[in-house]
Structure formats: C-alpha cells, structure tokens
Amino acid sequence: MMSSMKSLFSIAAFILTVFIVHYLFNITFQNASISLKKLIKIQGFVLISTTIVVLITLKVIYTKPDKTGFTYLGLVLFKMVTAIVFLFPFLTDVSNETKKLVVHFFIVLFIYLVYEVVFLLRHLNAEQKK
C-alpha cells in the first residue's frame, strides 16, 4: 500500500513539474507564443495517452509477463497514431505558431515517454525478482 502511494506521489510530482517547466519555458523564452489553453490540451492528451499505456502494460506485466514487450510496442505505436490524429487539425495551418506547437508537443511526448519507460522497467524488474 505504501509503495503504491509513493508511486502515485512520484507520478503526480512528475506531472506537475513537467507542466510548470513547460509553462515557464513558454512564457520566458517564447513570450507566451502558445496559449495556456493549447498547453493544457497538449499536456492533457499526452497525460491521458501515457496513463492508458502504463495501466494496460502494468496489467500485462502482472498477468502475462512474457507478452509485455509486444503489448508495450503495440500500445506505443497506437499512441503515435493517435498523436498524429491529435496534431492533424494544427498541421493544416503552416504558420510559425504551428511549428512551435508541434515542437512543444513532441518534446512533452518524449519526456513522458522516457518517464513511462523508466516507470515500467522498475515494475517489470520488481515482478521478475519475485
């Protein structure tokens, strides 16, 4: 129980940190070129898609550990396809703001992807030690 609470606190701290750094970077270095509403949409999309991938992969780790790699790769592929669908309305406009939005999106996506991999590797290693 304490371990899961520690994990939840760690995840919440990570999410809050990434959002604050992203927001401050946008205001400080980009002169708020991307609106807060768009930043929240980016963070929300990446957070929801990462949460779905992590929850499904954790379920597979604890039920069928031999299928974890295949499941994770399939989910990440699905996540990338949904990212393209999410970005498609923005990509129809080829302006400087759109380029910045896409760069922001992929930076946040890769930060969450690294955290996701580290988080899942810890759980996979803990499960294999049992």
Distance between the termini: 17 Å
Low-confidence stretches: none
Structural class: mainly alpha
Major β-sheet annotation: none
How many domains? The number is: 1
Percent of residues in helices comes to over 70%
Count of DSSP-assigned helices: 4
What quaternary form is this?
single chain
Q: Helix-strand pattern, N to C?
A: HHHH
Strands, count: 0
**Estimated radius of gyration:** 17 Å
Q: Can you give the mean pLDDT?
A: 86
**Which strand-content bin applies to the residues?**
under 5%
Shape: globular
Quick synopsis:
The protein is mainly alpha-helical and 130 residues long.
Describe the protein:
With about 130 residues, this protein is mainly α. The protein has one domain (about 1-130). Helix content is about 90%, strand content about 0%. The protein has helices at about 1-30, 35-65, 70-90, 95-130. It is globular and about 50 Å long.
Element layout with pairings:
Blueprint: H1 2-30, H2 36-63, H3 68-91, H4 96-129
Task: Sum up the structure in keywords.
mainly alpha, globular, single chain, 130 residues, 4 helices
